[in-house]
Amino acid sequence: DSGVTQTPKHLITATGQRVTLRCSPRSGDLSVYWYQQSLDQGLQFLIQYYNGEERAKGNILERFSAQQFPDLHSELNLSSLELGDSALYFCASSVGTDNQPQHFGDGTRLSIL
Amino acid sequence: EDKVVQSPLSLVVHEGDTVTLNCSYEVTNFRSLLWYKQEKKAPTFLFMLTSSGIEKKSGRLSSILDKKELFSILNITATQTGDSAVYLCAARDYAGNNRKLIWGLGTSLAVNP
């Protein structure tokens, strides 16, 4: 158990809808990262927050947004969902922003019908 | 464009065999290389390598980084069925304020009894 908690485990929804994925980092970790993993593209970095502030940005679509709250949990919001958004979404956390390993949650599997 | 390439994509061995997984990278502002093991869910951290030529070891697993030739290898000796997983490597890009991990697609290892 990595100590990173993600909910829900699985989401099934239709195209055009909006969903929110939630992540609680390990105790003491200030950084939260969001990743998308699909079969053909591997792990794609979306965005990082550190202590409530956006720190780094990857290949995150404009339809997606995230935030980190004062209690350090984070939410990833996906809107106007398309079939291609079906994937496993991982959250990871680390203590700081520098050269440290990231620890992953079990992921949320998003299925778009 | 920065990238990480893993080979082979897939590997099937018998218990007791030794395997070597390869990871090459092209990252302009390289800082470190990380190895993860992904079974059914979350990637779990194995090693982080920062310096060339220094082997990191954990039980039957070991890894080394060559910063001149831009690659890393992960060795697993006396493989067991529990080693069956996807092994991911990621290179840390330390460019300015947008520091992130760039991931390979992984090597799928199946260890047969």
**SSE class of chain A:** mainly beta
Oligomeric grouping of the chains: heterodimer
Q: What does the overall shape of chain B look like?
A: globular
Q: Report how far apart the termini of chain B are.
A: 41 Å
Strand count, sense and barrel status of the largest sheet of chain B are: 6 strands, mixed
Which bin fits the share of residues in helices of chain A? under 10%
> Which blocks of ≥5 consecutive residues of chain B have pLDDT under 50?
none
**N- to C-terminal distance of chain A:** 31 Å
Q: Could you characterize the architecture of this molecule?
A:
Chain A has strands at residues 5-7, 10-13, 19-24, 31-38, 42-50, 53-57, 64-68, 74-78, 87-94, 103-104, 108-112. In chain A, the strands form 2 sheets. In chain A, strands 2, 4, 5, 6, 9, 10 and 11 form a 7-stranded mixed sheet that branches. Chain A has a 4-stranded antiparallel sheet with strand order 1-3-8-7, with no helix packed on it. By secondary structure, chain A is mostly beta strands. In chain A, a hairpin with an 8-residue loop joins β9 and β10. The N and C termini of chain A lie far apart (31 Å). Chain A has no helices and 11 strands. With 113 residues, chain B is mostly beta strands. Chain B has no helices and 11 strands. In chain B, the strands form 2 sheets. In chain B, strands 2, 4, 5, 9, 10 and 11 form a 6-stranded mixed sheet that branches. In chain B, strands 1-3-8-7-6 form a 5-stranded antiparallel sheet, with no helix packed on it. Chain A binds chain B through residues 2, 4, 41-45, 48, 55-58, 90, 97, 99, 101-107, and chain B through 31-32, 34, 36, 41-45, 48, 50, 88, 90, 92, 94, 97-106.
